[in-house]
Design brief:
This protein has 155 residues and is α+β, with helices and mostly antiparallel strands. The chain has a domain of 102 residues: D-Maltodextrin-Binding Protein, domain 2. The strands form 3 sheets. It has a 3-stranded antiparallel β-sheet. Strands 2-5 form a two-stranded parallel ribbon. A two-stranded antiparallel sheet has the order 3-4. The longest helix has 13 residues. The radius of gyration is 17 Å and the shape is elongated. The two termini are 17 Å apart.
Length: 155
């Protein structure tokens, strides 16, 4: 997850310098889910939860993404949705030294003893597909302040 806004929004309103500064910004949020009204970020073991508000709430991340590209406000999105836009300069990452908790993908099945070939193949595929740094996170190399493992769970 990354906090970002368009260059036009940042030029007009400035970039927040701390999570608390988000309170004074137009934060575009989801109507439900983990990042709906409070954004929780961590830095060096310090966790901060910020109540955010803005002119738009939507069920669709695509709607919020489009609004952010149009300069309407600040969003929190998975890096796979905004990585290309950041790399192309259409969005600017904000507060890069603060991280969101990483989402975990789990495969749940009854037992390994009688695991079907289909399930085994799927689990192996998911392990390989999720190994290493995803291609959509290559934009992070442009920002030296980003720690590798951005978005990793709190230690």
């Amino acid at each position: 997850m990354v906090i970002c806004a368009s260059p036009a929004y940042v030029a007009k309103h400035g970039a927040p310098q701390s999570p608390e500064a988000l309170i004074g910004h137009n934060c575009l949020t989801k109507t439900s889910g983990a990042n709906s009204g409070t954004w929780t970020v961590s830095q060096a073991g310090n966790t901060v939860s910020i109540p955010v508000r803005g002119s738009m709430r939507a069920d669709s991340g695509d709607v919020l993404h489009t609004a952010a590209l149009a300069g309407e406000g600040i969003i929190v999105m998975p890096t796979f949705m905004v990585g290309d836009d950041i790399a192309q300069g259409k969005l600017v990452p904000l507060l890069l030294d603060w991280q969101f908790r990483e989402a975990t993908l789990m495969a749940v099945y009854p037992t390994r003893r009688y695991l079907s070939a289909k399930v085994r193949t799927f689990v192996e595929f998911m392990q390989k597909a999720s190994a290493g740094e995803p291609a959509w996170d290559r934009w992070m190399d442009m920002f030296p302040e980003v720690q590798k493992g951005h978005g990793s769970p709190d230690e």
